[in-house]
Amino acid sequence: MRFGAAVLRSYEDPFTVEEVRLDAGPAEGEVLVRIAGCGMCRTDLAVRRSAGRSPLPAVLGHEGAGVVVETGGPETGLSPGDHVVLGFDSCGHCRGCLGGNPAYCDRFAALNLFGGRPEHAGRFTDAAGGALAPRWFGQSSFAAYAMVQARNAVRVDPSLPLELLGPLGCGFLTGAGAVLNSFGAGPGDTVAVFGAGAVGLAAVMAATAAGAVAVAVDRHPERLAFAEKLNAVPVHAASAGLPDRIRRLTDGGAQYALDTTGSGRLINDALRALRPLGHLGLVARLHTALALEPGTLDRGRRISHICEGDAVPGLLVPRLTGLWRAGLFPFDQLIRTYPLSDINEAERDCEAGLVVKPVLIP
């Protein structure tokens, strides 16, 4: 079958929207999904900054949502017409997967970032027959259609706004999962979130939905204003004595902190803002060595990396849509939609901080 997709052909050039070809229908355990909308994630854009690691040319996109149009057999558990949110890929049989931690799959990097499954090679080509990289995050959903492993597709209620749901499979999942799963935050807890982008604001929403007090730290006044609308206490990242200010706001220090920035300075500030036994979670990729200042890990404080919100998407996505229905997780307010043909404009707006979460509509 032939359909439109946004292809990245080099690490420096813009996306080109062109015709691509999928040479076979779903294999056993796969489903073909017609994409209704796909979020643009910072990880998609980071491909440019890690030139040479992720193979090109490729169709990126890994926050897809759509309608199942064909299945690779009844054992998929899905049927044509089902509405689904697409998650990250995992092998399903390593220790991490079997232990309910698919984000820590032994093959996570290989399956999602560096080439996909060998059996996918050659099935996905451009109009001239040139090979495109196997499925990005098991999806390559900057396209009208995506072929995915059925185990990575989460069925959702068809009454939900399907075109907006894709970011629940990664960006919003990561922020919310860090708070709800990794931290287990609840009433009476305090959560300081460093960086009020899509992941950070999802963490803020999850914290307030769980009954915790959230503090949002960012350098953009409009992001701080939005965090305040979500019932967080806004704090400018350049505030003098930032850790002391957060400790005052949280009655002696935050129990939990989440850094979405990858900034060494803010990571040290976050550690200093924690109360004894506090936990700092990191979700951003570090691009330089992290030097921790003396005393930051004293008194039982700890630091860990959190991948995909420690989530099982099939459990967390329905929880988040339920919170949305209850008015407690208004993720739709973070979204601006663009036609897929305007993908380069969406990328520019995202990089400039003009939009929190772009969603591309094929």
Write a structural description.
Helix 4 crosses helix 5. The protein is globular, with a radius of gyration of 20 Å. Strands 3, 5, 6, 8, 9, 16 and 17 form a seven-stranded mixed sheet that branches. The chain has helices spanning 42-46, 95-98, 108-112, 171-183, 198-209, 221-229, 242-249, 264-272, 313-325, 343-351; strands spanning 2-8, 16-22, 30-39, 58-59, 64-71, 83-86, 124-126, 145-149, 153-156, 190-194, 213-218, 233-236, 254-259, 274-282, 302-305, 335-339, 357-361. The two termini are 16 Å apart. It folds into two domains: 2-169 and 330-361, Medium-chain alcohol dehydrogenases, catalytic domain (Quinone Oxidoreductase, Chain A, domain 1), CATH 3.90.180; 174-307, 3-Layer(aba) Sandwich (Rossmann fold), CATH 3.40.50.720. The model has no long low-confidence stretch (mean pLDDT 94). The chain has ten helices and 17 strands. Helix content is 24%, strand content 26%. Strand 10, helix 5 (198-209) and strand 11 (213-218) form a beta-alpha-beta unit.
Tell me the radius of gyration: 20 Å
Number of helices: 10
Main sheet: strands, sense, barrel? 7 strands, mixed
What's the pLDDT, averaged over the residues? 94
Quote the distance from N terminus to C terminus: 16 Å
The helix-strand sequence is EEEHEEEHHEEEHEHEHEHEHEEHEHE
In total, the number of strands is 17
CATH class of the largest domain: Alpha Beta
User: Which percent range describes the beta-strand content?
Assistant: 25-35%
- The assembly state of the depicted protein chains is single chain
Q: State the helicity in percent bands.
A: 10-25%
Approximate shape: globular
Low-confidence stretches: none
Specify the structural class.
alpha/beta
CATH fold call of the largest domain: Quinone Oxidoreductase, Chain A, domain 1
Number of domains: 2
Cofactor: Zn(2+)
Protein name: NAD(P)-dependent alcohol dehydrogenase
InterPro entries: ADH-like_C, ADH-like_N, ER, GroES-like_sf, NAD(P)-bd_dom_sf
Family: Belongs to the zinc-containing alcohol dehydrogenase family.
